[in-house]
Amino acid sequence: MTTLAYTLSDSRVMLRRNLKHQLRYLSMTVMLIGIPIVVLLLFVYVFGGQLGAGLGAHQGRSAYLTYVVPGLMLLTVASAIQGTSIMVAMDMTGGIIDRFRTMAIARASVLTGHVLGSLIQTLTAIAVLTAVAVGLGFRSSAGPLHWLAAIGILALFAFALIWLAVALGLAAKSVETASNTPMILFLLLFLSSGFVATATMPAGLRQFAEYQPFTPVADTVRGLLTGAAIGGHAITAVAWSIGIAVAAYLWAIRLYNRRRAAEPK
Q1: 125/31 Cα distance (integer angstroms)
Q2: CA-to-CA separations, 24 to 93, 130, 171, in angstroms, rounded
Q3: CA–CA distance, 146 with 159 (Å, rounded to integer)
C-alpha cells in the first residue's frame, strides 16, 4: 500500500472511532440538534411577528421563518464547533494520543477523523433542522441545483470552522478552556445577517456585520433557497471559508506537531 492509501485507511478508522464517540456521548449530539430547534421555535413564535414586520410591508411570522432558517443552519454549524473543540482537548489531555503514537498510524488521520466525524454530525443536524422548519411552514423555491449549492456552501464553511475548532482544542490547556473558547463564534453569528437584516443596525455595527464571515454565508444560503439575488456574496463566502480552512489547518498541524515534540520520548 502507498502512503496515501495508509493515510486514507487510518483516517477511516479514526472516523469510525469518532462516530462511536458521538453515540457514546449522545447528550452532545442531542444538544447540537436540539438547540437550533429550540431557538427556531423561540424566534418564530415569540419574536417572529415583530421581527417579520421589520422585513417590509405585509410581512409577518411566515416571512421571518423563511428569513431566519439560513441563520439557524449557521447556528447549527457554530454549535458543532464547541463539541469538536472539547473532543480534541479530551484526546490531547487524556493520554490516548500517547497510545496512538506507539502505533504505526498516519499522524494526520487523528485530526482528520475528528474533522470528518464532526462534519457528518453537523450536516445531519442541519437536515433535522430543515425538516422541522418545513413542518412549521418553511417553503423554498429553490431547485435541486440551488439546494446542492446551498448545502455545498454550508459544508465548506462548516469544514473551515471545524478545522478552527480542532486548532482551538489543541491550543487549550484543559477541556474547560476548550469548551469556552469557541463561544466567540456565537457572538459573530448574532452580529451578522443571520437573524436580522444588517440594514437595521447602527452604522458602525452594520459595517462590522457586513464584513465578517457569517454574513456572506448567510446571505448566499438565503438567496439560493429563496431565489433572491446573491450578487458577490457567494464569492466572498467561498473566499472566507477557504481562507479560514487553510489558516486553521496550518495552525492545527503546527500545534499538533509542537505538542508531539514537547512531550518526553
Answers
A1: 10
A2: 19, 25, 25
A3: 20
Burial of 79 (0-12, 13-18, 19+ CB in 10 A): buried
Is the distance from CB of 154 to CB of 69 less than 8 angstroms? no
Q: Which of 216, 181, 178, 225 is nearest to 198 (CA)?
A: 216
Q: Residue 82 corresponds to which cell in the numbers above? A: 464547541
Query: Residue 4 is placed in which grid cell?
Result: 496515501
Given its phi and psi angles, is residue 231 left (phi above 0), alpha (psi -120 to 50 degrees) or beta?
A: left
Q: How does the average pLDDT of the chain come out, rounded?
A: 84
Q: Which residues have C-beta within 8 Å of that of residue 32, sequence separation ≥ 6?
A: 76, 79, 80, 83, 121, 122, 125
Q: What is the pTM of this model?
A: 0.86
- Residue 55 scores a pLDDT above 70: no
- pLDDT (0 to 100) of residue 2: 58
Integer angstrom CA distances of residue 97 from 14, 88, 94, 210, 234: 12, 10, 8, 41, 39
